């Protein structure tokens, strides 16, 4: 008779003191000083523990973490193409399901985690991610969001905010604000199109216990799940490397980032400030926005104000789209 496939049940951490001391993402990699995605990786690894398999599509968290015969992961890790983390995760999960059912693998189903950048999730990696979710594979897709194609020199991605100066959106006479488009909404893309997904969350490296528990909760669900993690990048956003956590916190205080969970259709919000600070304070702390005028910043404020009326839920842009002018 086929054996039932047992899955893991990860305990929620009640406080930072209850987070394991053990590390599964070790020092010795070559990410930049103050790298937000590296801190995100460390926290996600603490959340999953060792009985996990990570897939790393091409991006900073593959390239800067690996050199010849050397890697910082203390669990099985595999590089995937930037386009296909979701497909590789699907194959690994399907193989374990068969091995366990046939009694050829004695353990529980490992935590299968894609650790993809914004490009590798909602742009170049979108079709494979969507396929994994559509078919209902028991795997977690994490989008660590540094708001650019960072590894190839900070090019714009669909997660790059309006007004950012990137190597593909340099501000100049013709387009003074640099990037003219507002970002895609990653979580809404997942929620809207994938009925097999029952848990989606946003998290920030500024709130590590919340981040760890969201990753654990996502893994405890059977089936595909998605966690979108705000991960500031000092090199691409041009702020002082010691301010990574400060920048992440300010994003929440200004409404530039909202922490929430979506579970079977219900939204709950975390870390909502009593009163939001103006977005100008967040934007002025990053050189990627240094060229913007007060009118550009007002456009961003209008966008954030509209989004904050129903965080996580898509809103019509309160500003003119680029092709409408
Ligand atoms: C099909 C394909 N196109 C382009 C590239 C070049 N490339 C390598 S890493 C990278 C950036 C990835 O961006 P993201 O997924 O956001 O991760 P990040 O580097 O920001 O961590 C690009 C464009 C590639 N490896 N494969
Ligand atoms: S460019 Fe950004 S994401 Fe890449 S290693 Fe440096 S700080 Fe980290
Ligand atoms: Mg990126």
List keywords for this structure.
globular, Rossmann fold, eight-stranded mixed β-sheet, alpha/beta, binds iron/sulfur cluster, binds magnesium ion, single chain, binds thiamine diphosphate, 325 residues
Query: Oligomeric form of this entry?
Result: single chain
> Helices and strands, in N-to-C order?
HEHEHEHHEHEHEHHEEHH
Major sheet characteristics: 8 strands, mixed
Q: Which strands sit side by side, in order, in the main sheet?
A: 2-1-3-4-6-5-7-8
Which secondary-structure class do the elements indicate?
A: alpha/beta
How does the SSE layout of this entry go?
Blueprint lengths: L35 H13 L3 E6 L2 H4 L13 E4 L4 H17 L9 E7 H5 L3 H10 L4 E6 L40 H8 L5 E6 L3 H13 L4 E6 L3 H4 L6 H11 L4 E5 L2 E5 L8 H6 L9 H15 L17
Helix pairs in contact: 1-7, 3-5
The chain binds thiamine diphosphate, iron/sulfur cluster and magnesium ion (MG).
3D structure, described in words:
The chain is α/β, with parallel strands linked by helices. The protein has one domain (29-316): Thiamin diphosphate (ThDP)-binding fold, Pyr/PP domains (Rossmann fold). 33% of the residues lie in helices and 14% in strands. The protein has helices at residues 36-48, 60-63, 85-101, 118-122, 126-135, 186-193, 208-220, 234-237, 244-254, 279-284, 294-308; strands at 52-57, 77-80, 111-117, 140-145, 199-204, 225-230, 259-263, 266-270. The protein has an eight-stranded mixed beta sheet with strand order 2-1-3-4-6-5-7-8, with helices on both faces. β1 (52-57), α2 (60-63) and β2 form a beta-alpha-beta unit. The chain is globular. The termini are far apart. The model has no long low-confidence stretch (mean pLDDT 95). Thiamine diphosphate (TPP) binds next to α2 and α4. Thiamine diphosphate binds next to α2 and α4.
């Amino acid at each position: 008779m086929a054996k039932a496939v047992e899955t893991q049940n990860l305990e929620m951490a009640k406080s930072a003191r209850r987070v394991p001391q053990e590390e599964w993402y070790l020092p010795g990699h070559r990410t930049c000083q103050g790298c937000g995605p590296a801190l995100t990786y460390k926290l996600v690894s603490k959340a999953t523990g060792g009985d996990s398999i990570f897939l790393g599509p091409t991006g900073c968290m593959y390239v800067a973490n690996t050199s010849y015969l050397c890697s910082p992961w203390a669990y099985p890790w595999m590089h995937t193409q930037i386009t296909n983390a979701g497909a590789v995760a699907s194959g690994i999960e399907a193989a374990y399901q068969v091995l366990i059912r046939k009694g050829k693998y004695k353990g529980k189903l490992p935590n299968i985690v894609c650790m993809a950048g914004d490009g590798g999730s909602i742009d170049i990696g979108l079709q494979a991610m969507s396929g994994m979710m559509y078919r209902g594979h028991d795997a977690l897709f994490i989008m660590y969001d540094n708001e650019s194609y960072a590894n190839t020199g900070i090019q714009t991605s669909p997660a790059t905010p309006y007004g950012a100066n990137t190597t593909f959106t340099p501000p100049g006479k013709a387009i003074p604000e640099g990037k003219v488009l507002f970002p895609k909404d990653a979580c809404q893309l997942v929620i809207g199109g994938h009925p097999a997904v029952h848990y989606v969350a946003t998290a920030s490296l500024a709130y590590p216990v919340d981040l760890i528990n969201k990753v654990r909760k996502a893994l405890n669900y059977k089936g595909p799940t998605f966690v979108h993690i705000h991960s500031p990048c000092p090199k691409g956003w041009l702020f002082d490397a010691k301010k990574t956590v400060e920048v992440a916190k300010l994003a929440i205080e200004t409404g530039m980032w909202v922490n929430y969970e979506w579970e079977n259709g219900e939204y709950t919000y975390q870390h909502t400030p009593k009163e939001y600070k103006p977005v100008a304070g967040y934007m002025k702390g990053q050189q990627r926005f240094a060229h913007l005028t007060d009118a550009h910043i007002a456009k961003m404020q209008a966008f954030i104000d509209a989004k904050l009326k129903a965080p996580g839920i898509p809103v019509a842009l309160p500003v003119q789209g680029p092709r409408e002018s």
